[in-house]
């Protein structure tokens, strides 16, 4: 453990250890940005001094509405070093959401990405009345200060170190709640430092290693990864979706912190190249991949890293080892012909890649292992800073969420009785550790609902634990849907909007770990039959007897009707985000009822039971 009591103490120490080593580089900004660790530490303190000169007092909240950049990090750490608390959100968030966050957090300062964002927020400024407005990228106008003007203010101000303890509030991150109103997660300096001090089990960076930064740093996952990697003296390259594949080749990163969708996009690029080969070459490639899958299956058994069976016998392990030994020469052939190109697609030097924000599909887990690339999956929530468990570099159990990181406890309990369950039994995942939030800001009732009197946090997820302590997630007990891109979506408001359609009786959104939302729909039989009759047809519902010239339920015309209805009603809401649009859907013949076990006594749909009953249909939707 370090002697740091607060996160900003990192930067002077890093400046002493790596004064001339490059910390941050933004090659795609004009002009390009490059900062050494000494320059970064100096800039952070300069920004802190500027804020103090402008009157920021310890504990005051500063709204930081901006996207990933070197100046985001400088502002973030400058706010903390001055004693302030930053309230972070991305620049692309709906203005109405930023309005709620600013007011609820009781912020007094406003830092925005660009003048364009400030223009979008203009209608709210009169209500907010911020004492100071700062633009990170762009010129200051009138009462608005530019980044350089804040730094100039700092040059005339003697730095006054605030008293910052481990339990001091560092940041507020707003996360969606079931009501649709975001909740302010209070993270302390100790919460954030726990991640910095313990993510070494996932990554093994060396000073000077290159890391590509693509995830938003206002998100707890990208933020924790960036803090940790920089604490080890790495060289961070800021990339974008537009330049990401180019940057992989040009900068050849050693480390990447990503979400499942990112790893999926790399796989899709490789697979597209495979499909462009001649039929004979394609047959060879897929044949070798098939043999390699048998090789890694046997190897996992032999090494004791197979999730299934949970506890293999010695005979099974020996059989796996012999299979792997026999197929090893063919796997080496496949490596030279196929997998070497995959490694080159990610730059050729990748030591470790992290995947979080959603489950990594099993076929991707297999693919990257075949290619000899180490992808380590982590699990956590904003409320836990965020990492709770991760696959360790010393134990990469595929299909699992890994072991608890140091200092973290995981407990599986019965969702109804809250009694602890034995290993391998599925139940509700509870967690406890130094990374657990201080609570929800100005919302003690919500805090009490998720943290019990013994400090156990209800993650809302279902899972089980292997005899070795690995966590395996099986679903979500709470309603939030997390797409493979890491976006969190609360289904209730979207479902409520769709239920305004006269043709929809019941609807359940699906899409956990998928690229986009989908849904299951129970049609309103009365209005649907009336619509069909108006079209000059009778409609065959599942319980009806067939009639000559009648339609079955899922005709192209009926499907088009529902496609239009979903588009109309799901988008007829304020602040609709692009990823909240519904893609695939299926019509369900049997309504969700109490009798069939799909509704509670209070007539709420049991999402988990619906997902389980229709799991094959849902899987087919996203193939």
Layout: helices, strands, pairs:
Layout: H1 10-17, E1 22-26, E2 33-36, H2 37-53, E3 61-65, H3 70-81, E4 85-89, H4 95-105, E5 109-112, H5 115-128, E6 132-135, E7 144-146, H6 147-155, E8 169-175, E9 183-188, H7 189-198, E10 210-213, H8 220-231, E11 235-238, H9 244-251, E12 255-258, H10 260-275, H11 279-303, H12 314-345, E13 352-355, H13 362-370, E14 375-380, E15 387-390, E16 403-404, E17 409-413, E18 427-432, E19 439-440, H14 444-450, E20 457-465, E21 471-476, E22 481-482, E23 488-489, H15 491-498, E24 504-510, E25 517-523, H16 525-534, H17 556-571, E26 582-587, H18 607-613, H19 615-621
Parallel strand pairs: 1-11, 3-4, 3-5, 4-8, 5-6, 6-7, 10-11, 10-12, 12-13, 13-14, 25-26
Antiparallel strand pairs: 1-2, 8-9, 9-19, 14-15, 15-16, 17-18, 18-20, 20-21, 22-23, 24-25
Helix pairs in contact: 1-2, 2-3, 2-6, 4-5, 7-8, 11-12, 15-17
Provide the descriptors you would attach to this structure in a database record:
single chain; 623 residues; alpha/beta; Rossmann fold; Luciferase, domain 3; 8-stranded mixed sheet; long-chain fatty acid [acyl-carrier-protein] ligase activity
Mean pLDDT: 92
Please identify the oligomeric state: single chain
The total number of structural domains is 4
Can you tell me the CATH architecture of the largest domain? Answer: 3-Layer(aba) Sandwich
Proportion of residues in extended strands: 15-25%
- Tally of contiguous helical segments: 19
Category by helix and strand content: alpha/beta
As residue ranges, the low-confidence spans are: none
What is the molecular shape?
A: globular
Number of strands: 26
Distance between the termini: 46 Å
Proportion in helices: 25-40%
What is the top-level CATH class of the largest domain? Alpha Beta
The Cα radius of gyration reads 26 Å
């Amino acid at each position: 453990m370090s002697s740091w009591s607060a996160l900003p103490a990192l930067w002077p120490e890093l400046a002493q250890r790596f004064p001339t080593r490059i910390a941050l580089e933004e090659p795609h900004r004009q002009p390009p940005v490059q900062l050494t660790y000494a320059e970064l530490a100096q800039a952070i303190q300069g920004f802190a001094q500027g804020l103090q000169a402008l009157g920021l007092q310890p504990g005051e909240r500063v709204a930081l509405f901006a996207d990933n950049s070197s100046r985001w990090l400088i502002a973030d750490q400058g706010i903390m070093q001055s004693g302030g608390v930053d309230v972070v959100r991305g620049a692309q968030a709906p203005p109405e959401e930023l309005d709620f966050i600013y007011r609820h957090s009781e912020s007094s300062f406003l830092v925005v990405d660009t003048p364009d964002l400030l223009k979008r927020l203009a209608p709210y400024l009169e209500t907010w009345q911020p004492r100071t407005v700062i633009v990170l990228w762009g010129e200051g106008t009138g009462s608005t200060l530019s980044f350089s003007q804040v730094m100039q203010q700092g040059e005339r101000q003697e730095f006054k170190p605030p008293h910052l303890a481990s339990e001091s509030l560092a940041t507020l991150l707003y996360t969606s709640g079931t009501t649709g109103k975001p909740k302010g997660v209070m993270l302390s300096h100790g919460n954030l430092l726990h991640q910095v001090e313990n993510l070494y089990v996932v990554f093994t960076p060396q000073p000077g290693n290159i890391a590509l930064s693509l995830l938003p740093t206002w998100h707890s996952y990208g933020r924790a990864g960036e803090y940790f990697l920089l604490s080890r003296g790495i060289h961070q390259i800021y990339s974008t979706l537009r330049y990401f594949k180019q940057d992989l080749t040009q900068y050849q990163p050693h480390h990447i912190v990503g979400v499942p969708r990112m790893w999926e996009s790399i796989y899709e690029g490789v697979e597209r190249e495979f499909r462009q080969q001649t039929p004979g070459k394609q047959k060879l490639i897929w044949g070798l991949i098939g043999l390699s899958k048998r090789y890694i299956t046997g190897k996992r058994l032999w090494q004791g890293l197979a999730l299934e069976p949970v506890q293999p016998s010695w005979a099974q392990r020996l059989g796996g080892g012999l299979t792997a030994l026999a197929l090893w020469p063919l796997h080496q052939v496949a490596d030279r012909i196929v997998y070497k190109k995959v490694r080159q697609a990610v730059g050729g030097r990748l030591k470790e890649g992290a995947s979080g924000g959603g489950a990594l599909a099993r076929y991707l887990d297999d693919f990257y292992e075949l290619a000899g690339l180490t992808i380590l999956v982590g699990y956590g929530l904003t409320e836990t800073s965020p990492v709770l468990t991760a696959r360790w570099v010393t134990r990469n159990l595929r299909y699992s969420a890994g072991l608890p990181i140091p200092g973290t406890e995981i407990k599986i309990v019965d969702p109804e009785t809250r009694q602890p369950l034995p290993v391998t039994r599925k139940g509700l995942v509870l967690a406890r550790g130094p990374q657990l939030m201080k609570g929800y800001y100005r919302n003690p009732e919500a805090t009490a609902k998720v943290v019990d009197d013994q400090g156990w946090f209800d993650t809302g997820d279902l899972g089980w634990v292997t005899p070795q302590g690995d966590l395996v997630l099986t679903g979500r007990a709470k309603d939030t849907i997390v797409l493979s891109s890491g976006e969190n979506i609360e289904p209730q408001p979207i479902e409520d909007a769709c239920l305004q359609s006269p043709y929809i009786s019941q609807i359940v959104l699906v899409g956990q770990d998928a690229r986009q939302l989908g849904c299951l729909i129970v049609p309103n039989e009365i209005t649907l039959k009336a619509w069909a009759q108006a079209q000059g047809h009778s409609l065959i519902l599942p319980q009806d007897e067939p009639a000559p010239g009648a339609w079955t339920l899922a005709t192209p015309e009926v499907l088009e009707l529902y496609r239009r209805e979903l588009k109309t009603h799901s988008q007829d809401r304020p602040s609709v985000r692009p990823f909240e649009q519904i893609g695939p859907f299926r019509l369900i013949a049997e309504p969700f009822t109490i009798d069939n076990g799909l509704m509670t006594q209070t007539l709420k749909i049991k999402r988990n039971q619906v997902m389980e009953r229709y799991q094959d249909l849902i899987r087919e939707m996203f193939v």
